[in-house]
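DM from R.C. (forwarded with permission)

"hey, sorry to bug you on a friday — could you get me a structure for this? deadline for the figure draft is monday and I only need the backbone to look sensible"
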Amino acid sequence: DNPTVAADVRGWKVQWADFPAADVEGRARYAKGRLELDNVALDTAVGEVGVRGHLDLERRGTPLALDVRGRQVQLERLPLPVDVAGRVDADVRVTGAAARPQIKGRARVLNPRYQRLGFERLDVAGRFAGDTIEVDEVRLTDGHELLNASGEVNLRTEQFRGAATLTDVPLSVADPLLDAPLPVRGTISLTLTGDGTFDDPSGAGQLSLRGFGYDTYDLGDGDLTLTAGDGEVSLDGRLFEDFDLSATVPTAPGGAPARAEVRFTELNVGRYVPQLAESGLSATVSGSVRAVADPFAGTLEQVTAALNPVEVTYRLVTDTAGGRAADATDFVVRSDGPIEVSYRHGVLNVDRLRLTSAGQALGIAGTVGDDGTIDLQVAGNLNLAVAQPFLKSVFTQMSGRATVWLEVGGDLTDPRPSGRIRLDSLDLIPRSSTIGTELSLMRPVELEIAAPYGPLAPAEGDEGPPIGVFTVALPPFAAPVPGNRKPPNRFMIRRDDAEIEVTRFAAWFENFAPTSLMVEADATNITLNVPDTLRATINARPVRFEMWTQPVARRAPETRLRLSGDIDVLRGEYVADITSASEINQGLRDDLRGRSRAGSVSVFETSPILKRLMLDLRLRSDGDFFVRNQVTVLQLELETRFDLKVTGFLVSLPTDALDDGLAIDG
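My reply, with the result:
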């Protein structure tokens, strides 16, 4: 009834399911319902496994006691449902009933790999009994110990306790699992202890970031304290020396949302965005940013920011000496009260943004969609003196004020402004008396800004359409005043003792830079003074000035100017000396009876852009124009009358067409 059987077991190429075939060798004994295994070894192409121990087959629950040993088992060659690899050495003891065994063991995996994520070594030790898993050790090494963890969890009650330490783990550790590496660098360290349940954990820890950087930005270090309890996890600490962080995250759905707040004081933005300094900008800001999110739904519900104060400085360098700024001007823009912005339902709302500079204030309000669309309104006052450093080569002094009403549409990649700018006052002191000794705006005037509708066609040879496209023009009427009256919009300028009325004005912009300009004006009793050359008083009705970018074959585009119109010379004198009798003879013969061509006009040589000035003028004088100069050793005074047509470039270039040279007919 109770036979005893003992046998030596040998087998070759024994295979079960999809596991590799094994050569089996060992000794087995069966007596009184107990099966004993003595050094049963399975030798396979992917490693060795040995088993010894017994099973009580006739006892209730089939108690067992087995020792399993594995050596050099190649995980990547086993039919496992996950992509793993590594060489495993393991010692495992299995005891208790077969249906609810108790397992205790230790394993070491050399060169462990999960998908493309690999390390140097993984050590695991622990036990499993019933519903409880106890982890004595999980240690991950790659050059140094990255992870050391231990703990216990009950699968039935979902209670746990544990501790974990991460040490200098590179933030790039997960890159092999991603389609593209994250643009972050640095290391993270963490010490954490905790207990409780999955839904309501309790714990505490410290998290440290060292050498953190994003893309090209070096941000620095950070230290955070973690606490858990009452259904949420809290983080508090300091990041990158400038930011104070407070955050709470729920541990289960259905409760309060996640909240975070970042605070900063006198933050130097250029420290984190060095491109600002390279462009001449510097900025400091104080304030806070708050966010509300649902981590379980994966939604960002709201972000609000309150910034106060904000200060931005732009340094314009107009001259350098020895590699250092020899002539620089600082423009300072400050916030007038807190700047408030918020993000809700996929839209960034500019709730309050008011900036001041040089005693003027500018307000901005509106929205920016998460798809980049813009709907902003800009209104306020500008101090035009801030533009003087940009024009200091032409004007020694500049002052004035303007009022702005603008709407900005389009998107972040292509903002499109429209609206009006009113020049309330403007006074200019030119550097050259040829322009005049003083220019001033006689009355307020409005300029209209308009942006195109719809997509733009790409420019020839460009990769895409231009951005920042708009026009500035002089409308016939100013904005309506109370009573719905539309007052005429006159652009009147006083030049010394004379008046100039700009009757037409238009400027075209691409990429936020002017590409062409047209000004048409009537002028009365204008005095011209070219030192040591010409003094005259003229009427010009009308005269037009144009500037544009001209494509040129086989050369870079060039900026061209054109001055056209009818000019009556009321009185004047030409006082430049002529050094040769042949020059005046030829000059008078050409100028008064026929046609001449000139290669240069010396008075304009110091302004290169004027070399591309094209004239199309009708000049007339009834007799009050005198030529008073010295011809070699003779004094000359001539009263002249003329009616001339002047066309062509002031300075001819070899690449110009023959008909584009300076020509005088009359």
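R.C.: lifesaver. The chain has a mean pLDDT of 84.
me: no worries. The helical segments are 275-278, 581-593.
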